[in-house]
Structures are given as C-alpha cells and as structure tokens.
Amino acid sequence: MKRLAIFASGNGTNFQAIVDAMKKGELQAEVALVVCDRPGAKVVERAEKEQIPSFVFSPKDYATKAEFEEKILHQLQEKQIDLIALAGYMRLIGPTLLHAYEGKIVNIHPSLLPAFPGKDAIGQAYRAGVKVTGVTIHYVDEGMDTGPIIAQKALEIADGESLESIEERIHQIEHAFYPKVLQQLLQQM
Ligand code: GAR
C-alpha cells in the first residue's frame, strides 16, 4: 500500500474527501501523515478524529524555509511517504522538499490554470466574469501554481450565478476529482 502525506493550511475538506475515498476503497493508499503550517487549523482537528498523525508547525518559529522543510522531510522519511498531495497548503514548496520528492508532489487548484493562480482563485474568476472555470491538478515546482498539468475539470458558470454557488460547485468537483486522480497516479508508481 502506497503512503500519502497531505499538506494543508485550513479547513481540510479535500483532506477529508481523500480519507473518505480511502475508507470506501476507492483510493488504495494510506494517508499516513498530515502536515499543517497553521496551528489551530480545522484540518488538524480532522486528522485527530481520523487518528492520522500530524506534523503542525509555525513558520515564524524558524529562521528559514529550509529549516522547517528539513523537519518536514524528517517526518516524511520516518513515515516512508511515497507521494505528497497539497490540499489547500498556502505556501510555496522550497528546494529541500522539491529535491527530495522530485515529481512526487502534486497540488489541487480551484481554477483552470494557467488562469487565476495564487490566492482566491474562485473569486478572481468570478470577478473576471469568465463563463468557464474549473479545477486543476498539477505537479508542484518552485513557482506558484505553475507545475506541469496532470488533469483538469471544467465548470460552466451560469448567468448571474453567485460566488457562493460557484465555490460550492468547485469544491464538489474537487472532492470527487482529487481522490480519483491520486488513485491513477499511485497506480502508475
Ligand atoms: C481548495 O479549494 C484548494 O483547491 C485551494 O484551497 C482550498 C482548500 O480547501 N488551493 C489553492 O488555492 C492552492 N493555490 P480545503 O482546506 O477545504 O481542502
């Protein structure tokens, strides 16, 4: 069984969707670690409830990114992690982790990249008035939402649709799409 680490900073609904898919046997992997850069984030509570170990840290306690990524790397190696899935981890990955897990870090982003990278992608798409947006799963490189695209799913925005409605539909897509793509990636490994 391949071993997954999920990196998240906030609510963790994608983490939950991945764990739920795993429990249903739709994702043949073990979520063996959660890494969170925000103590008190809801995802930490979710991990505890699922009895999944978490490594929670405050970046401000470290002088450099390399320092906290060394700590993360130690955890990943100890837990023998095969693949890292970023799920709302709002921080760039540095060379320490990129080199150690080359081609083995993926991210989900709530837009059709390369459109609307960065924060509040759904809001950005809404304000731009686009008629089609969606979800992208891609490999992670040193940039912000820039690595090679693995899969995308489009969503048509209805005339006059509210931001809340678009957000809800994007999240629904994410929760089904991420576990499915992770399963495909793990099968190829
Ligand atoms: C998700 O919509 C994810 O695509 C987005 O953060 C949200 C996390 O939600 N990620 C990015 O914007 C990455 N640039 P969650 O904590 O409920 O899974």
Fold and architecture overview:
Helices cover 39% and strands 23% of the residues. It is of the alpha/beta class and 189 residues long. The protein has a single domain, classed as Rossmann fold (3-Layer(aba) Sandwich), CATH 3.40.50.170. Strands 3-2-1-4-5-6-7 form a 7-stranded mixed β-sheet, with helices on both faces. Glycinamide ribonucleotide binds next to α1 and β5.
Give short descriptive properties of this protein:
phosphoribosylglycinamide formyltransferase activity, about 25% strand, Rossmann fold, about 190 residues, binds glycinamide ribonucleotide, Phosphoribosylglycinamide formyltransferase, 6 helices, transferase, 7-stranded mixed sheet, Formyl_transf_N, globular, 7 strands, alpha/beta, about 40% helix
